[in-house]
Amino acid sequence: MDIVMDADALNVFLAREFPQVAADYRVGRVDAGGLEARLIVSDANLRPGGTVSGPSIFALADLAIYCAILARIGPVALAVTTNASIDFMRKPEAGKELVAQVRLLKLGRVLAVAEALIYSDGGVEPVARCSMTYSIPPKRQDSV
Predict the structure, then answer these.
(1) How many domains does the chain have?
(2) Which candidate among 61, 71, 91, 93 keeps its CA 20 to 30 Å from the CA of 125?
(3) Which helix (H) or strand (E) covers residue 112, if one does?
(4) Would residue 141 count as lying in a domain?
(5) Exposed/middle/buried for 96, CB within 10 Å: 0-12, 13-18, 19+?
(6) What is the DSSP letter of 24?
(7) In the prediction, which pLDDT does 140 show?
(8) Helix/strand number for the chain, H first, E second
(9) Domain extent at residue 97
(10) What is the mean predicted confidence (pLDDT) over 79-91?
(11) For residues 105 and 41, what is the distance between their CA atoms, to the nearest angstrom?
């Protein structure tokens, strides 16, 4: 499926539809292979001990996968997560942004399945792996 929203369009969409969190994330790459997005880590994302919290890592995966789907289907704000699984594999590096690399595994009319690998910026070993399924709402048919 062709790309219908590039990184700039996705960032504008996030700012318009999710202004409460849009400043914390940035979509940086959208191509045939997938999408890359980052969490701009702040004190709000840290848990005691100075590491990034699990909920913050999960939120990055969810947002990145959502954007990877929208990059193919367009700005469908009501596409929703129906299943998620995450494996936390290692502690993120202190003081670094987190980067999600997303690969779409299936994009159907009703469901999309994708995987995200989360890295500390510049790291080679993933911090977490997440797989998600999204429900895509049916296209609205305007009555004549």
Answers:
(1) 1
(2) 71
(3) strand 111-120
(4) no
(5) middle
(6) G
(7) 59
(8) 2, 6
(9) 7-135
(10) 95
(11) 28
Whether 92 is covered by a domain: the verdict is yes
Q: Is the pLDDT of residue 143 over 70?
A: no
Residues in the chain: 144
Mean pLDDT confidence for 115-131:
97
Dihedral through CA 32, CA 3, CA 28, CA 97, nearest 10? -70
Residue 63 phi/psi, 5° resolution?
-65, -40
Q: Structure pTM?
A: 0.92
The verdict on residue 45 lying in a domain is: yes
Residue tagged 């940086």 (tokens): 28
Residue 1 lies in a domain: no
DSSP helix/strand/coil, 23: helix
Burial of residue 102, with CB atoms counted within 10 A of its CB: 0-12 exposed, 13-18 middle, 19 or more buried? buried
Indicate the pLDDT class of residue 33, thresholds 50, 70 and 90: confident
Between vectors from CA 32 to CA 28 and to CA 34, what angle results, nearest 5°?
50
Q: How far is CA 65 from the centre of its chain?
A: 4
